[in-house]
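user:
I keep going back and forth on a fold encoding question. Separate attempts, laid side by side, tell us more than any discussion would. Would you put together a sequence-and-structure record for a protein of your own picking? Write it directly below this note and I will take it from there.

assistant:
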Amino acid sequence: MDYGIPVLRYRLLHIDALIPMIKDLGVVLGKEKDATEMADRISGYYNDILDRTKKIADNDRPSVYFMSMGHFDWTANKDSTGHTRIVEAAGRNIAADLATKVPHVDMEWVIEQNPEIIVYSMSQEQYKANTPTIQEMQAKRDEIMSLPGFEDIDAVKTGRVYITDIKMASGLSELVNMLYYAKWMHPDLFKDIDPRAVHKELLQKYFDMDIDGIFQVYPDGPVQAKEEGAVLSKQ
């Protein structure tokens, strides 16, 4: 039944969808100037990532295993937004050429691929509050790094195993998510970027919220390797 009520609906899993939505809402709400300022700010950060990463050679792009939607054995192929995020941050998705959009893989396959970075997307069912606690994310990271055979994976040896709240992969938070990805892939290239500071700026400016007590990424700082003595530079 058609009730004659116009509805705008967006699937905000990438910046390319976020910018048009912001501009559309600016028109609908009579806030076009504010919407343009917001869109320009988001686009500025996003384009900066692309400008910095576009010339990175394939052999300088770290291999990445993305654990999708709270599962160790679910990942993302080249048709997914998870893949797009990795590629735009100048990483190499080890699951790019697998057959389905969300492939299910064996852990033995992951060990054989030996990724340099592992990113785990923590689903909302895995934490108690609106966002995960540091302790919940730390426990999940420890669990991943302790999986049988994972001690032989480069990502675990160097400590480049990261946990993200699944909510970071949509809406305005997707920009912050992209900044973290870029910094994880190429810490030296993005050493001047502080994703949490950008997150704080966006929350304060557009939502009148304080970031204190909100933790959606772990670790957010130097990472400790599985093997003693190896500590990466600040991520």
User: Anything to note?
Assistant: The helical segments are 15-28, 32-53, 81-88, 107-113, 134-145, 154-158, 173-185, 195-207.
